[in-house]
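Class, discuss our next protein.
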Amino acid sequence: MVVIVHSSKKRIKFNFVRFMFSMLFICCCVFGTISAFNGGGTAMSAYEQCETVVVRSGDTLWSVALDLGNNNCDTRTIVKDIMKQNNMTSSEVYVGQTLEIPAKYTVE
């Protein structure tokens, strides 16, 4: 009499690994699609044209944002966009500093 023993542990382990990779792939697709179509917020296009402003004595980032003359946007949003465009971690500016202004705001 011959007894055949099936190795079901290997089969279960293989199926579990395949299942985990499938779930990882699905999650990546879902989150990638969500981030690709998330049009809200203030993200700037890498190819968006910018104007520049040189900081003068007495200027603050807030005053620069106010001088942009865009009444349709909240000044806090403009400050945040300028900081993002210039990779700033603080709102401090210094005399002679050149700031790139996102193209959606007009310099007056």
